[in-house]
Design a protein that fits this description.
Elements lengths: L3 E13 L8 H12 L19 E13 L3 E5 L6 H8 L7 E6 L3 E4 L12 H11 L4 H15 L14 H13 L5 E5 L7 H16 L4 E5 L3 H7 L2 E6 L2 E6 L1 H11 L7 E3 L13 E8 L6 E3 L3 E10 L7 E8 L4 E9 L5 E10 L6 E12 L5 E15 L11 H4 L13
Parallel strand pairs: 3-7, 3-8, 5-6, 6-7, 12-18
Antiparallel strand pairs: 1-2, 1-4, 8-9, 10-11, 11-13, 13-16, 14-15, 14-17, 17-18
Helix pairs in contact: 3-4, 3-5, 4-5
Length: 421
């Protein structure tokens, strides 16, 4: 065990769905009274259905793996595979239903943006607060304070309350604190996705340094295969709460991509999909359907029509929709703005045409986002769900476009216009 940093041994985690329905005691009482009177639960979100009393969900199913000291391990898998759950178990945020987890060293973790920050305190005060939560003494923080602030790139705002920070600024400061703690184990869960590209690269280099030069152990969860490939020397692939592969990063990514094979479906039910915590769900996506097609496969340059349905709880708000197109490894390829939607209270339907001529042959997923912008230009997310999967093919082998992702990405851009020779 001395050479191991983490040992996960036959761990399972089971949840009882709907066990706690209200966020407050008042909400729980309201739900109980409504159930006794055989009425609809007033605390259910729009479109949500009540779960049966004994309905259970096995998030982690008899999982076992070891992590050696000084390893940088990636944990990958589709949404709902159990990645965040196993990290929470390792960090002891929650306890396993059965099995044991052994840790050999102090842990630094970033499971969510701004965890441990108090919105009313300044960045300076939160550095000390967050450092203390992560196990740093005041003397340690004093010694490393200037280095932490310099790395975070928020020195100008260090005496400004955290509630004035953007999510990206919070990530920068939180990562700076976490990465400068003298812990033996660092655990990161998709938090770098919020930061800008330059800061992401800076964080990756920092994690490489602490892994190789300082001998720390890193557990890294991300849907960005480029960062996983850059940082991790070994990967664990999860599916439905189980480890389906453990080994070299390249092979793990290939297995993950293979498991993301497309279904032959043109109807995508989004009503029960897992939602991001930032979504307020006043407008809830119900489904997306590709019309007049039996399979979600298209010839390069072909246009197709899709229909989206959603439920609105009012018709007073401005509602917009956009599509984030991702490659099959979850790397964003581009965005399609669909404009403002006409909607009424209740169920709504809209149809759009999608042009595949700007994408190279390959497999894609699409996140559909319902949103609006406030007066300051900030985005208010109503709903977001991965609502579409499709593939593009080219039948003419003589002119078939090859997909060299490392060289030129996923998009085919229009040629520039020649003004003069």
């Amino acid at each position: 065990m001395e050479e191991l940093a983490i040992k996960v041994e036959n761990v399972s985690k089971e949840y009882r769905l709907g066990a706690i329905g209200g966020a407050t005691l008042k909400g729980e009482i309201q739900s109980k009274i409504a159930k006794l009177r055989k009425k609809e639960d007033p605390n259910l979100k729009i479109g949500e259905k009540a779960h049966g009393k004994n309905e259970r969900f096995l998030a982690i199913d008899d999982m076992s793996f070891d992590v050696k000291k000084g390893e940088a391990i990636g944990i990958i898998g589709h949404n709902g595979a159990g990645k965040s759950t196993i990290l929470k178990l390792i960090c002891r945020v929650t306890t396993p239903t059965k099995g044991n987890i052994y840790l050999n060293g102090r842990i630094t973790s970033m499971l969510e943006v701004g965890t441990g920050f108090h919105p009313e305190l300044t960045g300076r005060e939160n550095v000390y607060l967050n450092g203390a939560i992560l196990g740093m003494s005041k003397a340690e923080i004093d010694e490393k304070f200037d280095e932490i602030v310099e790395f975070s790139e928020v020195a100008q705002f260090i005496d400004t309350p955290i509630k004035r920070y953007s999510s990206g600024m919070k990530v920068k400061l939180a990562f700076a604190v976490a990465s400068h703690l003298d812990s033996e184990i660092m655990i990161m869960d998709e938090v770098l996705a919020v930061g800008d590209v330059n800061f992401q690269n800076k964080c990756i280099e920092r994690m490489k340094k602490v892994a190789t030069e300082e001998g720390r152990t890193i557990l890294y969860v991300s849907h960005n295969m480029a960062t996983v490939k850059s940082l991790c020397n070994r990967c664990i692939v999860l599916s439905k709460g189980k480890v389906i592969f453990e080994g070299a990063t390249e092979e793990a990514i290939a297995i993950y991509m293979k498991n993301e094979a497309l279904d032959d479906t043109t109807f995508f039910d989004t009503s029960k999909a897992e939602r991001h915590r930032k979504c307020n769900l006043r407008h809830l996506l119900q489904s997306l359907e590709i019309l007049n097609k039996d399979r979600p496969q298209f010839e390069y340059g072909e246009k197709f029509t899709f229909r989206t349905k959603w439920i609105s709880d009012n018709n007073d708000e401005v509602l917009k929709m956009k599509l984030i197109v991702n490659s099959i490894d979850a790397s964003p390829v581009g965005v399609v703005f669909c404009g403002e939607l006409n909607h009424e209270k209740g169920e709504n339907i809209a149809e759009f045409t999608f042009d595949t001529s700007y994408l190279v042959p390959g497999k894609y997923t699409v996140d559909v986002i319902l949103y609006d912008n406030d007066e300051a230009g900030n985005v208010m997310f109503y709903d977001r769900a991965t609502a579409l999967r499709f593939s593009i093919e080219h039948s003419d082998e003589s002119v078939k476009l090859k997909h060299w992702f490392k060289d030129w990405g996923n998009a085919v851009l229009p040629c520039v216009e020649k003004i003069r020779d």
